[in-house]
Specification:
With 593 residues, the protein is an alpha+beta fold. Helix content is 54%, strand content 11%. A five-stranded mixed barrel has the order 4-5-9-7-6. Strands 1-2 form a two-stranded antiparallel ribbon. It has a two-stranded antiparallel sheet with strand order 10-11. α15 runs antiparallel to α16. The longest helix is centred in the middle third of the chain and has 37 residues. Bound molecules: flavin-adenine dinucleotide (FAD). The site of flavin-adenine dinucleotide has 22 residues, from β3, β5 and α13. The site of flavin-adenine dinucleotide (FAD) has 22 residues, from β3, β5 and α13.
Length: 593
């Protein structure tokens, strides 16, 4: 008798699985960098050649980890959420949180091996002789989150806390905090977090009730923070109102709250309980009671919210990247399933209805990829001193946060549906992807709050949409291999979108359409980016097909009772799902028909 053949590759494993039990496999064992043609092409466009050459091995390594060990750890950590201990065995209020070993191993990968938290603040991470560019950092976040979402909150909020402390804290406070926070030694390093939301208000930050009292020259905080992710962080940045300061946002100051005092004792605040959450279950979110906790004023007491908004904006960008990542995972899962699951004698990808469902997943995935890479490259240029890039980043940040996080929800549900009933079962990753997707529309500002920021502030006050317009029109000029008629349609869509957004910004009666205007800005921007990218050497020309799909389905009027698709869409779907090596001249005709 022969022993059963053991699989030697992922493809072999898929065939064996299919033969064994008819069920489609998942993405386990894939390298999420290697299989991402869109990303690989775009990184050569958005990164300097030297950076790309030096960093690509790390993208590849993290891509393999995300499809392998990290994915296993994330699955386990989700099933073993953190637990709060309120007291030690002697009855002392030494509260602490226990994490499963799978979470600790992921922390070691993130903070120790890759040093996500420090990589854009100092040299040394991943062998680089200088801080990593934003494009590289967010690409690494994108790969990591395809496996694990929950831990990205502590990672990112440590990174953004370091930014705030470096920018606003006194030299003395920097000397105290930064060496610990920038350390790559996970046994001793200090991680950061941000506590803002209180029962009285999350969106309405001015309603914050926490009071700061200066007692014997030391600031002490009194109050309750209602949503505190990474509840046991070593240092939290938070907003509180110094006694006697005015009400509303004007009276809020920014403080750094260490978990331990300089003599090692617990600071005077308690984690009262942990939240029982729909998603992000691997990570601890809790409620905090401040009982005279020692805190350090950061920067100017009169500019607390303004300073904190820098952290909020960095987090918003990261949230957009995380949504893009989770959507990519959804697409990867859906594609593996669609190519292997049999129904009525065919693989399900052969059915036109299913292919249309796949397109509805694929298009927002590719939009968010272009949007986050372009936003990150704007951040790199802004950091190098470009005011134009700073303007672009100003509007792209809430656009990405608003739309990508919102798209993540139907994309996750769509991917579940492609897997069928198994997608609903917690043994498969789809259920977790659905649970995790929903937090994106809540933290760092709900969809409404981000849409209002886009329309009233980025468009109405900063006029950042006009800076974006100039950049996008230049990209359209540079996309000359794309048929002129298609580029003209995009130019027209851009003009109309900008006029619409300006009207909504100017007329209070139109506030209820703020989300519509914000969505249109996102769609037209991503359309133009994908068109430009498709025209560049080395990228995936199919990005132009995604652009046309967005133009037709998101930016053009349609008759709800007429047939929704034309012949070109069938051909586009065929090329998108079957011909990864297609050339731009082969698809150019499809952009005009
Ligand atoms: C799991 C989890 C973890 C979190 N972690 C943190 C954390 O670590 N730190 C932190 O500070 N916060 C955290 N939050 C809080 C989160 O940021 C807030 O929940 C969020 O900002 C919304 O605030 P809220 O819950 O008070 O809702 P509200 O502000 O009461 O909003 C309720 C609804 O009203 C809408 N709304 C409010 N104002 C307007 C307006 N002007 N126009 C139109 N609609 C409006 C909102 O869009 C929303 O739909 C966390 C939340 C969750 C669920």
């Amino acid at each position: 008798m022969h022993a059963p053949a053991s699989p030697t590759s992922f493809d072999d494993a898929q065939k064996l699985d299919r033969g064994a039990n008819h069920l489609a496999p998942d993405c386990a064992g894939q390298n999420f960098y290697a299989i991402d043609r869109g990303l690989r092409g775009l990184l050569q466009l958005y990164l300097e050649p030297d950076d790309f050459r030096r960093l690509e091995p790390h993208f590849d390594r993290l891509g393999a980890l995300a499809g392998g060990r990290l994915d296993e750890l994330a699955r386990t950590a989700d099933k073993h959420p953190p637990e709060l201990n309120a007291r030690d065995r002697f009855g002392r209020d030494e509260d602490w949180i226990d994490y499963h070993s799978s979470y600790r191993e992921m922390e070691a990968i993130a903070f120790g091996d890759f040093q996500f938290h420090a990589m854009s603040h100092r040299a040394g991470a991943l062998g680089m002789d200088r801080p990593l560019p934003a494009v590289a950092k967010y690409t690494l976040q994108y790969l990591f989150v395809q496996a694990e979402f929950g831990l990205m909150c502590p990672i990112s909020v440590t990174d953004t806390s370091i930014h705030l402390i470096r920018k606003f804290a006194s030299a003395e406070l920097q000397d105290y905090l930064l060496p610990k926070m920038l350390s790559g030694d996970i046994a001793t390093m200090w991680k950061g977090t941000q506590f803002m939301t209180e029962r009285a208000g999350g969106s309405d930050v001015g309603a914050i009730e926490t009071v700061a009292r200066c007692e014997d020259g030391v600031w002490r905080l009194y109050g309750d923070k209602w949503f505190c992710s990474h509840a046991d962080a070593d240092v939290a940045l938070l907003l509180a109102r110094p006694e006697g300061a005015p009400g509303g946002t004007a009276g809020l100051a920014l403080f750094a709250l260490p978990r331990r005092l300089k003599d090692g004792r617990r600071n005077a605040y308690r984690i009262v309980r942990l939240k029982d959450k729909l998603g992000t279950r691997s990570m601890a979110s809790g409620e905090i009671r401040l009982e005279g906790a020692v805190a350090y004023l950061v920067g100017d007491a009169g500019h607390g919210l303004k300073q904190m908004m820098e952290q909020v904006n960095l987090s918003r960008l990261s949230h957009g990247v995380r949504a893009a990542a989770m959507m990519r995972r959804c697409l990867n899962e859906a594609m593996v399933c669609a190519r292997t699951r049999m129904a009525f004698g065919k693989t399900i990808i052969e059915y036109p209805l299913l292919r249309r469902q796949l397109l509805k997943i694929a298009v927002p995935v590719e939009q968010s990829l272009s949007m986050f890479l372009y936003a990150a490259s704007a951040m790199d240029r802004a950091n190098a001193g470009s005011t134009e890039a700073a303007g672009i980043l100003r509007i792209l940040t809430p656009l990405l946060k608003f739309r990508a996080c919102r798209d993540n929800i139907p994309v996750a549900t769509g991917a579940m549906e492609v897997r069928g009933g198994n997608g609903y079962i917690e043994e498969w990753v789809n259920a977790r992807l659905i649970r995790d997707a929903h937090i994106g529309v809540l933290w760092e500002g709900t969809s409404n709050i981000n849409a209002l920021d886009i329309v009233t502030r980025a468009v109405g006050k900063s006029r950042a949409h006009r800076t974006l317009e100039a950049a996008l029109k230049k990209l359209l000029e540079e996309a000359s291999p794309i048929p002129a008629a298609f580029r003209d349609r995009l130019r027209l869509a851009l003009d109309r979108t900008l006029v619409f957004a300006e009207r909504v910004a100017a007329e209070p009666a139109l506030e209820e359409t703020a989300r519509l205007a914000a969505s249109a800005l996102y769609h037209v921007t991503s359309c133009i980016l994908m068109t430009w990218e498709a025209a560049q050497p080395g990228t995936d020309p199919r990005r132009a097909l995604y652009a046309r799909l967005v133009l037709e389905h998101r930016l053009s009027a349609r008759d709800p009772l007429g047939p929704r698709t034309g012949d070109w869409e069938h051909e586009a779907a065929e090329i998108i799902f079957s011909e990864p090596k297609v050339s731009l001249p082969q698809i150019a005709g499809l952009l005009e028909r």
